[in-house]
């Protein structure tokens, strides 16, 4: 991992900026915001004719304005940092299976500055396969930041190749539990509806004709007054698939305000995210060839919300 260096720049003040304050001239000459320019001056990173500049200094034509621009962090760079709440369920030479808590992304991405599974494993000393894009090496599956539960990461290259193909060929058993509003009719069934990006949104998805083939199987485990607990099997693995499909049925995951859930119910249950949890993951082990299965219990916030729903009957 390389350490980025500062960007040192220097320009002569043009006649057109004569008399302007240093921060104003800095912003215009180097194409940065006024607030950024003022911050650089405050940090002592700006010099005028060889002397540290203050924000109120005035510019003279031909003066040498120098600035040291701090390196910009790469948003896709892995930040090795252990994350509280990540539990290792299984660890061997080829794979590591974890229980991912809510609020943790699987790998770095544009716009995300929080903790990641990959960063935790690197910090904890785990070897991860080098296959895949640099920021998501070893990753063969993903869970949303707001979704908790069991997932597998590959430590070896052969494991990565085998499991990547298994996910692609839909040979992995992925089981989720979701608490959804109301009562789906029928109580069990299959949702076969293509999913694509929602119009006018870079972060929401929707059922749309030109979307990717998406199939979700569901079965009602418990039917309560305000909500139903479903067991869901994913045949495909699209981003937000369960959330989008349940919202399309008019039965959004409880607490999923992004996809139309009732905020009043979410508040009453103390939920700050969608009630959705990856409870089981089963697959053929890439080394032994034996079928293995791993499970994850409900985290405290989901367990409490479910009990409140049961008590409301």
From TrEMBL:
Catalytic activity: a uridine in RNA = a pseudouridine in RNA
Domain RNA-binding S4, first and last residues per copy: 20-77
Gene Ontology MF: a single term: RNA binding
Gene3D superfamilies: Pseudouridine synthase, RNA-binding S4 domain
Highest taxon of source: Bacteria
EC number(s) on file: 5.4.99.-
Enzyme class of the recorded protein, top EC level: isomerase
Active site: 144
Family to which the UniProt record says this protein belongs: Belongs to the pseudouridine synthase RluA family.
Function: Responsible for synthesis of pseudouridine from uracil.
UniProt protein name: Pseudouridine synthase
Originating organism: Nocardioides marmoriginsengisoli
